[in-house]
Amino acid sequence: MELGIISYQSDTVEKEVNGFVDSFLLALAIVIIVLLIFMGLRSGFLIGAILVLTVCGTVIVMDIYDIDLHRISLGALIIALGMLVDNAIVVTEGILIRIQSGMDRLKAAKEVVAQTMWPLLGATVVAILAFAAIGLSQNAAGEFTRALFQVILISLMMSWVLAITITPLFCVFFLKEDAKHVGKDPYRGLFYQIYKAFLRLCLRLRWLTIGLMVALLFLAIYGFTLLEDSFFPASSRPQLMIDYWRTEGTDIRETSEDLKKIEEFVMKLEGVESVATFVGAGALRFILVYMPEKDYRSYGQMLVTVDDYQRIDSLIPVIRQYLDNHFPDAEPKLKKFRIGPGGGAMIKARFSGPDPVVLRQLSNQAQAIMREDGGAIEIRDDWRQRVKVLRPQFAEAQARLVGLSRPAVSQALETAFSGTQVGIYREGNKLLPIISRPPEAERVDVENIKDLQIWSPAAQTSIPVRQVVSGFVTEWQDAIIHRYNRKRTITPQCDPKVGNASVVFERIRPKIEAIELPIGYELEWGGEYEDSTEAQQALGGGMPISFLMMVLVVIFLFNALRQPLIIWLCVPLAIIGVAPGLLLTGEPFGFMALLGFLSLSGMLIKNAVVLIDQIDLEIREGKVPFTAILDSSVSRLRPVTMAAITTVLGMIPLVFDAFFISMAVTIMFGLSFATVLTLIVVPVLYAIFFRVPEKKLM
């Protein structure tokens, strides 16, 4: 006996976690380097130290609440890195500006914390609530990604606590007064002056600015119509599955012989390390996303392990061509493992109704449409082919004369071919059935069936079965009948040849839905469309609650309506950055991209809250409104820009991860434009809503 490893999940998990830890450390290094470049050595090291403390504190709390380190939780930490420094940057920037203006360090720290503590708390809560829909989602996709919300919640709250406690302490200890800058305008630099002049121009041409943004919004909405849809991407696991189906009713020995030949061919391919073959059923469920097939004699599965998952895309066409050439009557299906819930064919149409014959007709029409499209492969249905059965015609009158009933004849036929259980043999802790049946030579020859002997209670002797059976009829029968919601349901299905399933689905959907359904029959869509729809509906179920809470938090912060209205009017404009990013990178707008957009809205609102609070503060201190708008915007320039740069650059490691890439692209491109929204559109909307006189903007 030789033992081999098919899948050792411990090694796989360790490799994945180590890779993500490396990505996290790289993102952490990128963020700290950016801080050092733009904030100076002292401020950069200070904020970097706060970031490290925040991450350490987050990991400790995660351990307390049994949140493990895995792909989702580590990815959430990388996503949160840019947001974690946001609060510390605001506090450090405020203290630094006051120290450079000649204020005592301790007084500066007290003043900044008192001024920014509650706005930062409100903005942080809003950013957390943007992810709350994930935590409230009750379906499989929500359960799979729930750690994302949990880690964001812990880390952002930790960042706020440290921003108002440890950060001012470090600032008092380590920030020094620079005699060269005391008494001088801290915003006298060229970058600040260019921004101030440009903002003044936008305020003067406020309606033109808003009109331009609305035009860009409509262009972005049109761009969204060009995006492909997706649910969860394929895994980077270095393994592929080959599901092999022979014609229904095929002997399991023939299936096994075919699989031996296929295994020999696959093992010769470059990059293939091992092949595990299962005949008659799938493997045990060794990972969450693997769904083993039920027991079928005509079915077999091969798990092919390769040295690099990037080889899989080149191996699949080679293996498929070999199968088509050498096993033309088979129905092979080659697929990668997927990340996240969902499984089986990507495109499924479920026809439900009472009559199996009508259901097969509907399935054949749907499969014909799939074949005509040209972009679909592995087209079949889950009822598979009908099988031949030999059905005895029971002679009621003759059987009654000899004292035989229909069940007695059925049991005799079963014993003669399949065998019947006559006892149980105990071996240790195992119970083994004892089956009684004739020798194989008698069982395999169907010609002997008429001479089969049956005990007659009336005659007290065995009689041949032909005396109680008028004949045998060969019929075609459905060997497999599936039910869905207690209704007979047949599911024609297929996969795309290349690319995302949504492209093929959108082409064939109207044609299949145009099939005329008899009364009592119905059509439902399954596959990736159903999985994605259910996940989005579950996510949408929690969104009204989370968004209502976000709105209430913003209203409570300002105790007014115009400021929250300005903030929420900016949220839809974030689409302007998202659509071009996904189009340029070729990424679909899937479930993870949707989560990215939700988080993006939280980041945008957080920045807008801090800026508008600063404008209101300076107006309350007696500044002329137009001056308050300009000065507040200039003072927020570095914190907002720094938060955006650290978040965008910190996302770089996620761009190389198949699971997070669409989410990373959404946030990176969306936040880049959202920074423009915060620094330009928010001040312009403030001037419009509060009717700041245009002449004062000159």
Automatic annotation (TrEMBL):
One of its GO terms (molecular function) is xenobiotic transmembrane transporter activity. InterPro entries: AcrB_DN_DC_subdom (IPR027463), Acrflvin-R (IPR001036). It comes from the Bacteria. The keyword Membrane applies. The chain crosses the membrane at residues 20-38, 45-65, 71-96, 117-136, 148-175, 205-227, 538-558, 565-583, 589-612, 640-661, 667-689. Pfam families: ACR_tran. GO terms for cellular component: plasma membrane. This is Transporter, AcrB/D/F family protein.
